[in-house]
């Protein structure tokens, strides 16, 4: 539906072309000329343009709000109001409802008043918006400058005191936080290990759920836990109609707010140092070559074993790295959290690798076992193995997509997604690694079959690894007190 709005004051009646009927006719013709039919009339007879309270205008504004009007024809802006600001406000209001204004006086658009009107129209709505924004952000900053928290971000460890706009320590959670710092500073644990340890001890966070790695990592890094909190560290910027981006503010824009401390500043600093040290060690650990990666299984539960490194402190306080193979159920959060962790223990990498390699060399050297142990593998197809791995890869990727979809549909919460994705990504990384290794072997030793000589003469890591991949035996291992046992399965 389209509308025409006409207004006459008592003074206007005498002016030529301004009578009620003249205006109605002009607006009607104007709309019809543009092919707009279905015209509803809004009439204010005998009302001054000084005030906005007019029955016809009120009705028009309410119909506009209800979205039933597409185009509003008006003789000239003067009909809306005598005052430019009010003209602009109404024009802005009309256009915000999605409707369009059209003025009958054709030359209005190009007249000086018209140009001013249209350039001011855009300016005034931008001005109003920024004014509102400034008022609110100024209010928020003022609140923060008075040492108050602007809005509750629900950080772990604190409850919300609404009356004073301040965080108060949650006693139970604060004990967990102190324990987390203890594990980091005195045991050298990283977030992942701390998370596992908390799950093992049955220590939970809010809503009785196990703490996630992300939460633990935040607890270890956020300065707020030693009492120094900063507000306005980030701001949200509008980047499109419905998109927003979070940007960092420069430090001079931050507002410090003191909150109750759960740990001391010294503890926080020691933790930061330990996190730095762990990071350095982690980079070194990534470079470590594990001979039995992907071939090893837990003899107790049959799950695969993963390789990892952990640091421990020497008596003189320096760090030492220990490498271990460990049943995946002990290292994956999914297993640990569900409480189905295997009872097996970790096996030192070097000892196990040496023993397994020694055993294979012995077998290869003993002539009578030779045929049985090595030649059974002549028909082994690498490409088949790669195909199998590819199939698993596809399954895992599907799982990943499903997990994300469930999350989007609110079927699972963010912590579960996080855990699931971590496990899936870990498995995918291992498979990816194994596929690329198999490919290399396939290319290099295309028609070669492992001979006992290959095994006996293999000296470097690459040579040994290549022989092992070609044999593709499954090795099962378990730790017993101070020693370990293993068996090799073809
Ligand atoms: Zn196990």
Question: Mind explaining what this structure looks like?
Answer:
- GO terms for molecular function: DNA binding; DNA strand exchange activity.
- Keywords: DNA integration, DNA recombination, DNA-binding.
- It is a single chain.
- The strands form six sheets. Strands 2-1-3-4 form a four-stranded parallel β-sheet, sandwiched between helices.
- The protein folds into three domains: 131 residues, Rossmann fold (3-Layer(aba) Sandwich); 117 residues, Putative Large Serine Recombinase, Chain B, Domain 2 (Hect, E3 ligase catalytic domain fold), CATH 3.90.1750.20; 205 residues, no CATH class.
- The protein starts with a strand and ends with a strand.
- It is elongated.
- About 1% of the residues have low confidence.
- It is of the alpha/beta class.
- Strand 5 and strand 6 form a beta hairpin.
- Helix content is 49%, strand content 17%.
- The site of zinc ion (ZN) has 8 residues, from loops.
- Biggest sheet, strands in spatial order? 2-1-3-4
- Number of strand elements: 16
Average pLDDT, rounded to a whole number, is 81
Bound molecules: zinc ion
* Weakly predicted, low-confidence segments: 374-379
Largest sheet: 4 strands, parallel
Tally of contiguous helical segments: 16
Radius of gyration: 37 Å
What fraction strand? 15-25%
Shape verdict: elongated
Fraction of residues in helix: 40-55%
């Amino acid at each position: 539906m389209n509308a025409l709005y006409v207004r006459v004051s008592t003074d206007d009646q005498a002016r030529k072309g301004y009578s009620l009927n003249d205006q109605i006719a002009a607006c009607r013709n104007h709309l019809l000329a543009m092919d707009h039919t279905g015209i509803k009339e809004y009439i204010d007879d005998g009302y001054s343009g000084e005030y906005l309270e007019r029955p016809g205008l009120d009705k028009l504004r309410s119909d506009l709000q209800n979205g039933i009007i597409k185009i509003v024809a008006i003789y000239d802006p003067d009909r809306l109001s005598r005052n430019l600001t009010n003209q602009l406000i109404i024009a802005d209001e009309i256009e915000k409802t999605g409707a369009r204004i059209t003025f009958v006086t054709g030359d209005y658009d190009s007249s000086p008043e018209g140009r001013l009107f249209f350039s001011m129209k855009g300016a005034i709505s931008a001005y109003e918006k920024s004014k509102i924004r400034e008022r609110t952000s100024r209010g928020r900053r003022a609140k923060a400058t008075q040492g108050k928290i602007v809005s509750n971000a629900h950080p772990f460890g604190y409850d919300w005191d609404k009356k004073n706009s301040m965080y108060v320590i949650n006693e139970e959670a604060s004990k967990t936080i102190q324990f987390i710092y203890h594990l980091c500073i005195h045991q050298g644990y990283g977030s992942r290990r701390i998370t596992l340890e908390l799950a093992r001890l049955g220590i939970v966070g809010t809503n009785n759920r196990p703490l996630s790695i992300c939460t633990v990592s935040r607890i270890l890094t956020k300065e707020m836990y030693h009492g120094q909190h900063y507000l306005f560290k980030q701001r949200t910027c509008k980047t499109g109609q419905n998109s927003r981006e979070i940007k960092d503010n420069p430090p001079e824009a931050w507002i410090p707010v003191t909150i109750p401390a759960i740990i001391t500043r010294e503890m926080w600093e020691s933790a930061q140092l330990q996190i730095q040290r762990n990071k350095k060690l982690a980079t070194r650990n990534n470079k470590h070559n594990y001979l039995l990666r992907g071939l090893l299984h837990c003899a107790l539960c049959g799950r695969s074993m993963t390789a990892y490194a952990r640091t421990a402190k020497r008596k003189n306080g320096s760090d030492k790295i220990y490498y271990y193979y460990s049943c995946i159920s002990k290292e994956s959060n999914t297993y640990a959290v569900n409480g189905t962790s295997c009872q097996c223990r970790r096996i030192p990498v070097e000892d196990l690798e040496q023993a397994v390699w020694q055993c294979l060399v012995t077998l290869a050297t003993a002539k009578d076992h030779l045929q049985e142990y090595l030649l059974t593998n002549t028909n082994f197809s690498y490409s088949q193995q790669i195909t199998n791995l590819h199939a698993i890869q596809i399954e895992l990727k599907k799982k990943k997509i499903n997990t994300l979809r469930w999350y989007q549909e609110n079927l699972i919460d963010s912590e579960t997604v996080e855990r699931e994705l971590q496990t899936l990504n870990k498995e995918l990384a291992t498979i990816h690694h194994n596929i690329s290794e198999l490919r290399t072997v396939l290319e290099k030793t295309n028609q070669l079959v492992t001979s006992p000589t290959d095994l006996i003469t293999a000296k470097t890591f690459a040579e040994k690894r290549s022989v092992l991949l070609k044999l593709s035996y499954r090795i099962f291992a378990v730790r017993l007190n101070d020693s370990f046992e293993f068996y090799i399965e073809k």
